[in-house]
Amino acid sequence: MALAAAPEVKPGQDFVGIGYGLSSSGDVVVYAGVREIGGKVAVCGLVWYEKATSSTRAVEAKFTEKMSFKIDGKGLSVNTRQFNRFKTKEEAQQGLARCSVTQTAWKASYGKAKLKMALGNVTIYE
Predict the structure, then answer these.
(1) Measured between alpha carbons, how far is residue 23 from residues 40, 51, 63, 64, 122 in Å?
(2) CA neighbours within 13 Å on the CB side: how many for 74?
(3) How far is it, in rounded angstroms, from Cα 46 to Cα 1?
(4) What dihedral do alpha carbons 50, 53, 54, 60 form, nearest 10°?
(5) Which of 13, 42, 53, 70 could connect to 101 by a Cys-Cys bridge, CB 3.0–4.6 Å?
(6) Where are the domains of the chain?
(7) What burial class does residue 51 get, using C-beta atoms within 10 Å of its C-beta: 0-12 exposed, 13-18 middle, 19+ buried?
(8) How many CA atoms lie within 13 A of 2 on its CB side?
(9) How many other β-carbons are positioned within 10 Å of the β-carbon of residue 37?
């Protein structure tokens, strides 16, 4: 049985971004917003790299998956590995955000609330 692909949406004005640097290996930007999909909260996001090396792209997912997400004070469990990834900001601006549908039921107030994102504590040893 094939699994359905995660839904994708065009990023909107409600999307927010957070960026982080990986030493001298370049920067990562995570850009995300919430949508209602099937009565649940979905966090739709995309990631792009700025002056990133191949090692940045290799470890980015480990950092991004440790991020926390909240909407209207409610913590969300988000699978950031589902987000679309782009090599540049220009590509990202032309692309779609892929959604991670959470188990949280949608409330009308979420449509007006801003998504809050925070970086998690991560240490990666090579």
Answers:
(1) 37, 12, 13, 15, 13
(2) 18
(3) 27
(4) -50
(5) 42
(6) 8-107
(7) exposed
(8) 3
(9) 17
Residue 29: closest CA among 47, 8, 54, 2: 47
d(CA 124, CA 119): 14
Per-position pLDDT tens, the chain of length 126? 445 678 999 999 999 999 988 766 788 999 999 999 999 999 999 999 988 777 777 788 888 999 999 999 999 999 999 999 999 999 999 999 999 999 999 999 999 999 999 988 765 554
Rounded Cα distance, 112 and 28, in Å: 27
Residue 18 to residues 46, 66, 103, 108, Cα–Cα distance (Å)? 11, 13, 24, 25
| Beta-bridge mates of residue 116 | 70
